[in-house]
Amino acid sequence: MTETTADHRDSYPPIAEFAAQANADATLYQRAATDRDAFWAEQAGRLHWHRPFDQVLDWTAAPVARWFVGGRLNVAYNCLDRHVLAGYGEQVAIHWEGEPGDSRTITYTELLAEVSRAANYFTRLGLTAGDRVAIYLPMIPEAIVAMLACARLGLTHSVVFAGFSPIALRQRVDDAQARLVITADGQWRRGKPAPLKTAVDEALSDGETTVEHVLVVQRTGIDAPMTAGRDLWWHETVANAAPEHEAQPFDAEHPLFILYTSGTTGKPKGILHTSGGYLTQTSYTHHYVFDHKPGQDVFWCTADIGWVTGHSYIVYGPLANRATQIVYEGTPNYPDEHRHFQIIEKYGVTIYYTAPTLIRTFMKWGSDIPAAHNLTSLRLLGSVGEPINPEAWRWYRQVIGANKTPIVDTWWQTETGAIMISPLPGVTAAKPGAAMTPLPGISAAVVDEEGKPVSLGETEANGYLVLDQPWPSMLRGIWGDMDRYRSTYWERYAAQGWYFAGDGAKLDKDGDLWVLGRVDDVMNVSGHRISTAEVESALVGHHYVAEAAVVGASDDTTGQGIVAFVILTAEAEDTGKDLIAELQSEVSREISPIAKPREIHIVPELPKTRSGKIMRRLLRDIAEGRELGDTSTLVDPGVFEAIRARKG
Ligand code: PRX
Description:
This protein is of the alpha/beta class. It contains 19 helices and 30 strands. Mean pLDDT is 94; it is low at 1-5. The structure holds adenosine-5'-monophosphate-propyl ester. Adenosine-5'-monophosphate-propyl ester binds next to helix 10, strand 20, strand 24 and strand 25.
């Protein structure tokens, strides 16, 4: 990544004009600190409860929290019905832009009708509360409709990013034991339809599955063979169902969704989120961190609904807050690099939330592109997914934000469900590259191995980020594996009862927090979490690979790039094939193109400790072209010369 000096004195205080109209004010911190439970009860009051809760937090079964105990609500009712009942049915919920240039405008009344149809049809299929539904769809309105219809019925959805391979889909469908898969015939990819339904067929082709039906949205018109009795067209079923449906309330702790994310081992973890606490915190953060004003703002979160950012800041947070938002199907450079800026201009987007990797890509494309558009509607910018380098932060504010918009650098995770650490626009200062401070009601610390707080300003004394108090939208477990939940997040600081986030962090002299990136074997490529073990296992699955080690090396655009070192089997010699390309596509096939290694180096040996562990830290040094760190525990330091020689 391009290094620029990150100076804690480089601070952007709130602009008076923005502060004067901001949703947040400084008393929030104070009120939250004085009475945390009362503060969260007040935030839960943002929602409609069919039955009020009796208790804010029950932490007696830690680390499994129960928030808003005894409360009953319907998540979809909160996102739709109550806005329509309050007279806002004609407000636009979604301005949808299709990749080929088609578009749809969907009001709250229309979205409610579509969700009701889907809920009626899902009921007719025999699905009942607690059943799991896998959603494998591109960024089309039906994806949001499907999620909300599940929420309405108490079905637990598991959205699988449509870029994932059939193998990855099958793994997730099996783990969640989904009864229904919702997909599309195909998806638009740079002007061409790419098949999607056939990926589902491939995923379900081998052996017994729990899947009873595959519901298919017609999006591209590409050929999609249907299996009689199992497969159903959305337009022949859901579209004909009745548009009225009465929402029933569910317990605040009813499972809302499972979302799979990479951990340190090969098997993805099904992160479980529930209803009341999750919706409270996504609504709360969307309101204050984005300073969102319903009926006035046009909000655009550029994430895909396959990731948690899409769940929390396209679906649940914004719709609970009656937002008008943009949903865009395609990539930022189709048909050309102007696409995002055209959309901002066309709809008068006021709040834009994206990832550092895209900001760095915009920088590469050049300032002329955004300069060709009227972006004056923008009043707030957000960043998420990885640390933002100060240079990109300044460019973002200057070129996209005309030197006036606050930037919120928001730190959170699939596991946290909602934003945890971020500046509060109009209230706190922001520094390029720093996530700054935990939000009101959230508590975090930066500690050393023993759990002692690191000292302020000692740049050498980087520590680990921990969350030392439960929060409403925290994960409630790993689906089907509570032991893994405990060991992954709660074992490291078991004595203190803290959540270990897996990120390194530091505090500057002012006490502001800087997130430095993962400290485990998880890589962050363009804001996507990929585990080294996952990629290694895909590589070793190839019969020419005897052993593989994968590291994330810093990359100017994507934050990290995947670099693999492989030892080949004897049969691999003299195949005459382009082995590197073959191995790269093997990883794409097994996992997803997002996991494809940037570089693969064939090496004679891998550096290992005396106990046989691969020394990834040293491989990262090699991948990034650095002088080698401590090699004292290495079996044979000569290995490096050999690897270096091969890497060239
Ligand atoms: O390393 C942190 C990084 O992304 C990880 C979480 O990834 P995921 O669960 O996929 O969720 C991404 C979107 C919420 C974190 O452990 N990360 C996320 N946001 C930031 C960040 N690192 C630094 N600064 C951020 N703002």
